[in-house]
Amino acid sequence: MPSLHLTPAKLLASLVFFFLDLLDALLCVLFRFVDRVVDGAASECYCSDDGCGSEEVSESLYGRKNAFRKLVVRKLEKTESKFDDAKMAKSRWSDCGCQSCLSWMRNGGDLKLHVSAFQPSNVQECERKPAEMENVIFLHGFLASSSFWTETIVPNFSHGVKANYRLFAVDLLGFGKSPKPRDCLYTLRDHLEMVKKSVVEAYALEVFHVVAHSMGCVVALALAAEFADSVKSVTLVAPPYFPSAEDAGLTALEKLAEKKLWPPMAFGSAVMSWYEHVGRCVCFFFCRFHLVWESILKFLARKRYSITLFFCFQLLLVNAL
């Protein structure tokens, strides 16, 4: 029988992540208490197993192992059963309250994604009917927004592309200037329906191309399946693909965010992916005060970089990590 060899590095990693298990469970209790006091109701989290088996929710959210989760959840459920849920506030105390992050709330309840639309510069092309035009929808990836395309890709397109194509760069649900509703699980269906409502139907696109990066590739494939007769081409840049017979979500999570201490980027990825409430703390520090960080970066770089792209997404890390 082979002996188990536990190196000092593995032992240290086990101790660190065991501590993070405990910390995340305690933060779950803290956030539920503060949310209930300030917002009137505790925000839902993925510490329970209520979402297991749901086709719309990835098992990577409910299936993350934590040595203390079940114990804490049982205690919380017994305590919270004594209280009546109050109406949830539109914006949480930990959310950013800047004009950009709250702009979606001023649409009179009609939730639509923020879309940067570029009309063709060719006069003859502009005079054509929308159904006859060449249209391209751009979908960004995780930790990004439509600015990923509008600030780095679109300006470098050739004159021919700008003159003959209608380009639509989308802020996906929960990212950038798009809505960040609290009563949403941010499932693939949610993303698909919002792209359909905000782009395909809003701009009367009968035929179109789709270009997507990273996480956006998943939405792009769903969009292509939904509009099989309308999509002329699909371009996927760095699509996430991890073949697995079962538990595909957890397999991808373990490959993308393996629990290890080194290098620092890998450790940060593991912490933000496996620990929902620790991640909320980090996002509170960065997202809640992203304007401060943007000012600091602008001062240091002497140039305005859109740090909002990185910090102000409020989707999986804050609403549904």
Automatic annotation (TrEMBL):
Source organism superkingdom: Eukaryota
Domain AB hydrolase-1: 136-248
InterPro entries: AB_hydrolase_1, AB_hydrolase_fold
Keyword Cell membrane belongs to the record: no
Transmembrane segments: 12-34
Pfam families: Abhydrolase_1
SUPFAM superfamilies: alpha/beta-Hydrolases
Keywords: Membrane, Transmembrane, Transmembrane helix
Record-given protein name: AB hydrolase-1 domain-containing protein
Native source organism of the sequence: Kalanchoe fedtschenkoi
Source species taxonomy: Eukaryota, Viridiplantae, Streptophyta, Embryophyta, Tracheophyta
